[in-house]
Amino acid sequence: MARPDELVFAPLGGVGEIGMNLSIYGLGNRHQRSWLAVDLGVSFGDEEHLPGIDLIMPDISFLEKERKNLMGLVLTHAHEDHFGAIIDLWPKLKCPIYATKFSAALFEAKCAAERNAPEIPVTVVPSGGRVDIGPFNVEFIPVAHSIPEAHALAIHTEAGIVLHTGDWKIDPTPTLGAPTDEKRLRELGEEGVLALIGDSTNAVRDGRSPSEAEVAKTIIDLVKSAKGRVAVTTFASNVARVKAVADAARAADREVVVVGRAMERVVQVARETGYLEDVQNFRSPEVYGHLPQDKVLALCTGSQGEPRAALARIANDDHPEITLNRGDSVIFSSRTIPGNEKAVGSIINNLVLQGVEVITDRDALVHVSGHPRRDELRDLISWVKPQLLIPVHGEALHLHEHAKLARAAGVPRVLVCRNGDLVKLGPGDPGVVGEVPSGRLYKDGTILEDSKSRAVVERRRMAFSGCAFVAIAMTAQGELADEPEVDLVGIPEKNRAGETFDDLVFDAVMSTIEGLPKARRRDPDALGESVRRAVRAVINEHWGKKPPCLVHVLTV
Length: 556
Fold this sequence. Notes:
The protein is α/β, with parallel strands linked by helices. It has 3 domains: 6-207 and 369-450, Metallo-beta-lactamase, Chain A (4-Layer Sandwich), CATH 3.60.15.10; 212-359, Metallo-hydrolase/oxidoreductase (Rossmann fold); 466-555, Ubiquitin-like (UB roll). 31% of the residues lie in helices and 24% in strands. The chain is built from 16 helices and 27 strands. The chain has an 8-stranded mixed sheet. The chain has a 7-stranded mixed sheet with strand order 9-10-11-12-13-19-20. The protein has a 5-stranded parallel sheet with strand order 15-16-14-17-18, sandwiched between helices. Helix 4 (101-113) packs antiparallel against helix 8 and helix 5 (182-191) crosses helix 11. The longest helix has 20 residues, at 524-543.
């Protein structure tokens, strides 16, 4: 009798971290499996640790190898950490993509705005609909989140049903779109759910995430009481928040001016897909300066401190059309993503110095999370009754707390895994049964580099300790043809005794060359390595840091 097919799961991103989500499900045996990918997102570079790197993406080398067995890629929703890597990585996979209408439309607009984006077809599935993708039957279950058309995925297979939650919360009064479909989730619980792969972002927070309706009410009150100009910044993709801001502007008899390309793009897609049908038309930035101060509201990109976004330019007083003055207000209707605190703090400080009143979620309920807190996690477990729960979408602490909560809620099996772990879900006892290649790719300008790339490693070192460049011209007889040239970049001018580093390094180069036997002087590689070591040693002696040193030896 043939053994039943095994159902396996492996996170390739999004576990032990928030962002860069990519999960894969496999059905078959050790030798031959069909694969289904869920989401393909990015996380964002950190200038301190990854200078010059804009985006971080999951390593998809395993899927490239399994390309002929990859049945498709399904998108839970259209946030960058869930779909931002597709344009760069899809050409390596060329698999079918499945998404609902809003996600597909936003992706199409993103491709249109990107130079030389490949043509990537997307199959549109209705919200609440089901689609067969190889041996997987995937059901899109509406859930509340901070973007239209977020969905949990019920993945129906011969081995059982897996509920992949994506990003979700329970919001009984969303201002836009459907609430989380409790009825269907309860029905799945009655059918029997093999595994729940669940969002852990807010697993450390007690209670429930407040509703978007409460935020909308707060924003109306703040905008109506404002005296001067008002600017509101939020995540561009949060269409419910955009609608709340528009409603507040209408209630206060203000015109909405949209500032920033990302915001313009989302507003256009939201109108085309019917999510802003009853919302007034917005104005372009050129109109801003012609409207009375108490009749205008600027809806801006830049809530995360992005240096090229609208709000950073306004705070630096270098935006061509939008200015703010003493007595005006800025509402940050957003949460600062960890890692962006410095950039956001800098913008807030610049605004305060201009006399602008800044309102954040510390001052009023101007933002709520799109992720479930602990009581919501307990509700979902009670509805779905999974045999196994695997926490994902969180750092180590979030995963640990979600796992602890699941055990206390009576889930029979709870398993915490890491990116690259291959987990058997069923049939039989679940557990980690292997490992698949996983890691990170860095988007460096237009080039994709792996995490060990020379450029990334060296740039990090240069950012910390500068760089020394030495050029030496030697004759074939091993004599100096001219004085060495020394160029120091990012290294202090003088040491504590007032001696210049240029002189110290030049002297070190000269004494090293003079101290070498002629045979070594005639070997460019040996000469270069000796000079490199001497330069790094002398700089370290006088500064306490060892910068990279590049030595070019020319034989004339």
